[in-house]
C-alpha cells in the first residue's frame, strides 16, 4: 500500500484536482435540471443540449473576440454573457411553446416531448457548428498555472480549473441557497415546488414562476457548458453525455436537493477522474455504478425525502 | 366483433408484408428488421400501459443478439438459438426487473438507460471477449437442420419474424385483457388503490417487464440472424430511444401499432436517411413532437379515426 502510494501519489493528486473541476461543471448542469424538475415536474432531457449549446456559443464568441483584437481578458466575462444569451434565447420559447401547452399531459409524454426537443437540438447544433471539435482555450491560457503543493512534490495545475470553475460553482450554490430561502421570489419557487395548486391559491402566479425557473435552469446549464468549454474540445454527443451524467447526480443526491447535488457532483466527478487515471475502461461506467449503488441502498437518493403517497 | 377485426387486419398485414417481400426482394431484409424491432416495441407498449417508459430496452435486444453470436458456433440450429436467446433475455429481465420495478417514471426510465449503457460499455471495452466495436460475425446457422443460403435464408428469417410477431401480438392482447394486464393500467392511474385491493404493483410490473424483455430478446435474436453481425451499437441509448419513438409513432392503443410503426419507420429510413443524413435525427424529433401534440393515437389511431369517419359518413 505504502509503495503504491509512493508510486501513484502524484497521479492521485492530479485525479483529485481534475475531479474537482469536473464536478464543478456537472454541478452547474445538475442543479438547473433539479430546479426545473422541482417546479415544472418535467425531467428536461434537452437540458444536456443547452449545456452543449452554451459551450459552443462561448467558444464561438471567444474565437470572434480573438479575431476582433479586443483585450484578451474580455474572454472571461464573455463566458457569462454566452450563458445568459443561450438561456434568454432558448429558455422562454421552449417553456412557452412546448411545455406550457402540454402541462396536463401524462408525465411520460412530457418526458418524450423533451426527448424530441433533444433530438432536434442535437442535429441543429451539428448543422451550426459542424462535427469537427471546437476549441477555444483562451481563458485557460490567460490565467496561467499554479503549483499545488502535494506532499513533497508540486503539481502544476491551471488556475482556471483550480479556482474559476469550482469558485463559480460555489458562488452559484451559496447564491441559490440564499435566494431560495431568503428572498420572496425564491420562496415562491419553493412554494410551487411543494404544491403548485396551494401556491396558486395563495396568489402566486405559478405560470410566471415556471417560466422564470425554466429560463434560469437553461442559463445554468449553458453556464456549465460555457465554463467547461475552455477545458474540453466540444464534439457532437457531448449533450447526451451531460444529461445522463447530470441525471446521475440528481438521482444520487435526491430530487430537489441543492446542497446534496453539490456533494453528489463531487462524488461522481471524483469517481470519474480517478477512473480516468487508474482504470480508463471504467470511466464511462463509474457515474452509473455510483447511481445504481446509491439507489439500491436508498431509493430516494442520498439526501432525498420520501414523498407521501397519494391515494 | 372487434376481436375479429384485429385478427383480419393482422393477417392482411402479414400478407401485405409477404407480397412486398416477394415483389421487391431487397426489401425482405428491411421488413425482417422492422418486424424484429416491432417485437421489441411491443414490450415498450406493455410498459407504457403502466405509464412507464424504458430508455434502455435495447439492452435486451443486444443481449440476445450477443447470445446468438456466442452460441452459434456451438448450437448452429436457429430454432434452438432463438428460444435460448429469448430465455436468456427473460432471465436478465427478471434480474434487472427485480431492481427497477421499485422505481417509477423518470427513475425507472433513467435506471434502464444507465444499465443499458453499462452493458454497452462492457461490450465495447472488453475487446478480448466481445471484439469491441468491431463486433462479432455470426457463424453459419441451420434452419430446422437445413443449411440455407442467400434468398432461402432471408425468407426463413422473414417467416420466423412474421410467425413470432403474430404469436406475441396475440399473446400480448390476451395478457392485456387478463386481470394481470388490467392491473398494469392501474399502476398508471393510481398505484396505491391497486395495493389496497391486495394486488402487488411490483409483481404486476415485474411480470410485464420480464415479458417485454423476452420479446425484446426475440427481436434481438432475429436482428442478429438477419444482419449476421452484432456490434455494441445495438445496446447504445439511441437504439433504445428509437424503440420508444416507434412505440409513440405507431400508437400505444393496439398491439398492431408497434408493427405498423416499425414498418413505417424502417421503410422511411431506407428512403429518407440517405437524402437527409445530416438532419435525420432532427426530422425524427419533429415527427415525434407532431405525433404527441396532434395525433396522440399514433399511426394506428389516425387510421382508426379515418375509418370511423368514413363509416359514419
Description:
Chain B: Pfam families: BPD_transp_2. Chain B: This is Branched-chain amino acid ABC transporter permease. The complex is a heterodimer of chains A (311) and B (313). Chain A is mostly helical. Chain A has helices at 2-40, 47-68, 75-99, 107-129, 138-143, 159-182, 184-194, 196-201, 206-228, 238-253, 258-278, 286-297, and strands at residues 145-150, 153-158. Chain A has 12 helices and 2 strands. Chain A has a two-stranded antiparallel sheet with strand order 1-2. In chain A, helix 1 (2-40) runs antiparallel to helix 9 (206-228) and helix 2 runs parallel beside helix 4. The longest helix of chain A has 39 residues, at 2-40. The relative contact order of chain A is 0.20. Chain B has a single domain (2-312), classed as ABC transporter involved in vitamin B12 uptake, BtuC (Orthogonal Bundle), CATH 1.10.3470. In chain B, 78% of the residues lie in helices and 1% in strands. In chain B, strands 1-2 form a two-stranded antiparallel ribbon. Chain B is globular. The model of chain B has no long low-confidence stretch (mean pLDDT 87). Chain A binds chain B through residues 37, 43, 98, 101-102, 105-109, 111-113, 115-120, 122-124, 126-127, 240, 244, 247-248, 251, 281, 284-285, 288-289, 291-292, 295-296, 299, 309-311, and chain B through 48, 51-53, 99, 102-103, 105-107, 109-111, 113-115, 117-118, 121-122, 125-126, 188, 190-193, 196, 237, 241, 244, 248, 278-282, 284-286, 288-289, 292-293, 296.
How would you summarize the topology of this molecule?
The complex is a heterodimer of chains A (311) and B (313).
Chain A: H1 2-40, H2 47-68, H3 75-99, H4 107-129, H5 138-143, E1 145-150, E2 153-158, H6 159-182, H7 184-194, H8 196-201, H9 206-228, H10 238-253, H11 258-278, H12 286-297
Helix pairs in contact in A: 1-6, 1-9, 1-10, 1-11, 2-3, 2-4, 2-9, 2-10, 3-9, 6-7, 7-9, 10-11, 10-12
Chain B: H1 2-23, H2 27-49, H3 58-71, H4 78-100, H5 105-125, H6 127-130, E1 136-137, H7 150-177, H8 179-189, H9 191-196, H10 201-227, E2 229-230, H11 237-250, H12 256-275, H13 280-294, H14 298-312
Antiparallel strand pairs in B: 1-2
Helix pairs in contact in B: 1-2, 2-7, 2-10, 2-11, 2-12, 3-4, 3-10, 4-10, 7-8, 7-10, 8-10, 11-12, 11-14, 12-14
